[in-house]
Amino acid sequence: MTGLSAAPTLVVGLGCQRGCHVSTLRALLDQALQAHQIELHRIKALASIDLKRDEPALNELAEQLGLQMMYFSSEQLASYQPRLSHHSDIAFERTGCYGVAESAALALAEQLANGPATLLIPRQKYAQATLALAGAA
Question: Would you give the DSSP letter of residue 41?
């Protein structure tokens, strides 16, 4: 990257257990961004798996932050398996993909930037939720 290149497209991928509270997701997000010194306004969108489309906390978080929430099918996310930092057999049993947060973050970052994405924050787990952050140039 050159000194004046455009800011990367940053996307947060989220996974959560049914009934997870929005405050849990927000705490995880704030904690991860603070630990990596990333400002909230740099996040372009949120992503998860389509099985979570009706999960109130995910949609509530997107609304609170004024960000778009995008959902991907397990088929779309499965292709990211070789790039995951963590493979969860439980996630695979429940969703058909080995890592919802990381896969969703990579998928959306690549879609928005129309180019390859990298995991900048690997899977973080907190209470009933997981988070990952991906960026694409």
Answer: G
Contact 100, 126 (CB under 8 A): no
**What Å distances lie between residue 49 and 13, 39, 55, 98, CA to CA?**
9, 25, 10, 11
pLDDT tens string 40-79: 999 999 999 999 999 999 999 999 999 999 999 999 999 9
> Encoding tokens for residue 74?
């397990």
115 backbone dihedrals φ, ψ, rounded to 5°: -170, 180
Number of domains composing the chain: 1
Distance CA 103, CA 80 (A): 6
Whether residue 126 contacts residue 30, with contact meaning beta carbons closer than 8 Å, is answered with no
Rounded Cα gap, residues 85 and 6, in angstroms: 26
Residue in the structure block whose two tokens are 């990333």: 38
**What CATH number is associated with residue 66?**
3.30.420.180
Q: What percent of the chain has pLDDT over 70?
A: 96
- Among the listed residues 93, 83, 67, the one whose alpha carbon sits nearest the alpha carbon of residue 14: 67
Boundaries of domain holding 126: 17-130
